[in-house]
Amino acid sequence: MVEVWPVYEGGVSAVSGPWARLSLDDAIALFQIRPEDFVGSSRDAPLFRTTDRNLSVFGYKYVLIMVPEDDQRLPEWPAGVYRSPLQPEEAFDIALKHRLSDVLGRQNVIRVQHGYISDWNDRSTFKVTVVVPPEARIAGEASLRANTSLLEMASTSGISGVPTLQYATEDELGQHED
Amino acid sequence: MLLNPDHLLDQADGLVALVGVRRRQADLRRAMSVTYYAIFHAVVTDFTDQLVGQNQRASEQYAMVYRSVMHKELSSLCEEIVKPKPNDKIRPYIPIGGFDNNLVGAATAIVALKEKRHSADYDPLFWVTPSDAIATVGMGRAALGQWRAVPAAQRQVFNLLLGFR
């Protein structure tokens, strides 16, 4: 599986985890990489994270796609690092949708949107809204796994706050009166 | 008389049930809050049963221990249990093979539901959708089932961490 990594700028190797793991075909389609976006081999990967970085949730500068040797497709897609043209904000939504669709079922996820919040311990984190079709039935176990996935994502991304996950249909998003 | 977690979830189900009119925010918020308390009371009952004894549930000592569990301490412990790498305070007590998946699931629910409960009870800008309320109550039911499926040895570790770390 290829990995989607958010990257800061700086001189210290990244210690966070990938936003998503997916097939090469999905990575090409979702993160719009092309063969000419090849940056270098995994050994030379510019996974930088500066110690004086902006500590807001999304101070990332780039999104890199790491293709391992097992997934390379020569000669067009050699193993190594590819830089996605997408901005981290957009890539994050795509990674979230991929991750949550795996857990909730693709038929239950129309789209995903995120925002920045503080949790009730005043720690920076993010809020995810999964827009679901009106007929969606999210099983309790699936919702649990979705929350676990988000907590893991936050933890490996160095985000200390507890992310919030909510579900809404398109109609419900437009309602704000009792 | 202890609160019955299943009754609390039944109450939550009733609050989110479709009754032909648009569900009120008061009902949807209350459902979220009640769902958190269902799993909270299930966990605290188990904790107190282990420390004081199930046959002491009518005693003042039981009530004292029951009421000693703080929401923040419980959620902090659960946050660590869910992490791929728990902190140094927890690590020496992690069972061989790691925490049971059911325990991780229940811990996830406690963390997530506590955030929703706070928002539902105190945030004037919090808007609850029926879809979210229904999913939240469902998650609470799943979490209660998972908590009850945690092996006794792992629940003992959890309770000791809750009480003494």
Number of helices of chain B: 7
Name the structural class of chain B: mainly alpha
Order of helices and strands of chain B: HHHHHHH
* Radius of gyration of chain A (Å): 17 Å
What is the gyration radius of chain B calculated from CA atoms?
16 Å
Q: Any overview of this molecule?
A:
Chain A is α+β, with helices and mostly antiparallel strands. Chain A contains four helices and eight strands; from the N terminus they run ββαβββαββαβα. Chain A has helices spanning 24-31, 88-104, 140-156, 170-173; strands at 2-7, 20-22, 38-40, 62-67, 80-83, 111-118, 124-131, 164-168. A five-stranded antiparallel β-sheet of chain A has the order 2-1-4-5-3. Chain A has a three-stranded mixed β-sheet with strand order 6-7-8. Chain A starts with a strand and ends in a 5-residue tail after the last helix. Chain B is mainly α and 165 residues long. Chain B is 70% helix and 0% strand. Chain B has helices at 5-16, 25-52, 60-68, 71-82, 101-122, 130-149, 152-164. The two termini of chain B are 29 Å apart. At the A-B interface, helix 3 and strand 8 of A face helix 4, helix 5 and helix 6 of B.
Write the layout of secondary structure elements.
The complex is a heterodimer of chains A (178) and B (165).
Chain A: E1 2-7, E2 20-22, H1 24-31, E3 38-40, E4 62-67, E5 80-83, H2 88-104, E6 111-118, E7 124-131, H3 140-156, E8 164-168, H4 170-173
Parallel strand pairs in A: 7-8
Antiparallel strand pairs in A: 1-2, 1-4, 3-5, 4-5, 6-7
Helix pairs in contact in A: 2-3
Chain B: H1 5-16, H2 25-52, H3 60-68, H4 71-82, H5 101-122, H6 130-149, H7 152-164
Helix pairs in contact in B: 1-2, 1-6, 2-3, 2-5, 2-6, 4-5, 5-6
